[in-house]
Amino acid sequence: MALVGGGAGSFIGRVHATAAVLDNRAALVAGALSSNPERAKASAPAYDICESRAYTSYQEMLDAENALPEDQRIDFVSVATPNHTHFEIAKAAVEAGFNVICDKPLTFDFAQAEALVSAVEASDVVFAVSHNYTGYPLVRQAREMILSGELGEIQAIRSNYIQGWLRTRLEEEDQKQAAWRTDPSKSGAAGAFGDIATHAYNLGRYMTGLLPAEISCNLKIFAEGRQLDDYGHAVVRYANGALGTVTSS
Fold first, then answer.
1. Which CATH superfamily is domain 153-248 in?
2. Considering only CA atoms, which of 97, 102, 43 is closest in space to residue 65?
């Protein structure tokens, strides 16, 4: 396994690395841990990545790993970087022939999404997005009970993801995670809804197998001066007639 992102001061990269090795089926052996070359190198010892495979950029990593014998190179790349970098890194890894697991959102817009789909379809790699809550045993059991008909016809789905940690302007206090999540050029068009409501919606979608027919959403910015939403509420009408709500903050 190789990790892109996860250097000093980051958050989700360490989570990905820890989760990947829990069952001893993966080992983190390479990484491009930061867009800052010095930080990328300096962060490697914390992951027990040897110096020769601690790369200063994701492209250097892909090129160097591809040059290794097949039985020595990485099997897959985990992309755990800010949103605006996902597309270019994931697409480069796919085109280099590596399997990919990428954080959401996969892309910034629909055109990028189509380009990424085309790249994956033209390859023979496995590509996954880390909607990680679908791996929880209770979620898997709920899905099995619903899809088997044990709970009958699903008529309503209510999902919430409430955090509230960005209720104040932490981005003004040199808080790295808050800074990029509230910057449209790095986070994308949505704030809290794009960051965490996607997990809440995904759980309802995964457990029931239902697809939405119509969605109406209200987004709110409570922290004065912020550019992206810190609260949102969506109403969903599913294809089978069921109604749903998604709330996040």
1. Dihydrodipicolinate Reductase; domain 2 (3.30.360.10)
2. 97
